[in-house]
Amino acid sequence: MVKQPYRSAGGGRSRAALVRRAGESIALGSKSFASASLLFDKATRERVHLLYAWCRRCDDIADGQDHGGPLSIDEKQGHDRVEAIRILTHRALDGQPTSDLAFDALGLVAAECGLTQAMCDDVIDGFALDAEGWRPRTEADLMRYCYHVAGAVGVMMAKVMGVPDSESDTFDRACDLGLAFQLSNIARDLSEDDAAGRCYLPVEWLVEMDIPPGQHLKPMYRDKLVTLARRLVHLAEQHEAAARLGARHLRFRQRWAVLSATNIYGAIGRKVVEQAELAWDHRVHTTKLEKLGHVLSALREARLGAWPPSEMPRWTRGELMVRARMAGKPADVKYTPLRDEDVRKKED
Questions:
Q1: What PANTHER family does the entry give (predicted)?
Q2: Which residue segments constitute the domains of the chain, with CATH numbers given?
């Protein structure tokens, strides 16, 4: 008799221990998101922290980091790292212990909220792109990458907040929020990414500005880089405005927390634009006082609601999902004979 593997949501660890360690992870890895998450009700906050812990751990494994900081990229090991992330994730979703708190945390929150393997694989596929040394050629490529590493996370966060599967529009807006966050992050981190040998500016954008590959941080191109950063932030603002519409479908404290995070991350992108050529001489951030102001502004908006944008973003969750699926590996479909009734025209 074959012994069945042990299965228990969270890998058998206590929920309290996983929640505590997840809270420590977000406090260390993202002060902006940690501040906004305090506004959630207790149940939502714990689940958001559990999901964040997995996202942070995956990012750290893929880039050889510890809660952010300098990247340690070894392309020879990149593929193996991503495969390790995928294997541990699938084990966690199957209720098996992983020997890693962050993955066990994912298993717990997935069981509680109905997160699926497909949702997780969408995120992991973004790490796979980085491991391949991938670069975006077009704006569509850029947005597909942003979907993987942030838009898909936004969808998972909406699921964690209890958004019903039937509310597809709310999931669309959650994806918009993730896209906005990532676009602002890319604008802010151009210098850090360049130091690690990465560039998320589409090749076509660089060609339009007559910037040679790998030279965008050179002093003679700083004014042109500012133009491209504005373009990134403009895209982010379009998705940010759309995301605010989705917040109205959340419960009040969830709405307040989401809008606070929206304000804080949006401010980072706008600071990059304001600081122009100096934006990449240091890491742009918001102060505690500024964060408080954004939280208070979000409180007002949570009560009064947001104005619909004059124009919705060009890139939609549906289109980006299709691009992601089309760019991925073919599904492992087992071929079975199909009945041909109603397929072939029957002979008289």
A1: BIFUNCTIONAL LYCOPENE CYCLASE/PHYTOENE SYNTHASE (PTHR31480)
A2: 1-132 (no CATH), 135-326 (1.10.600.10)
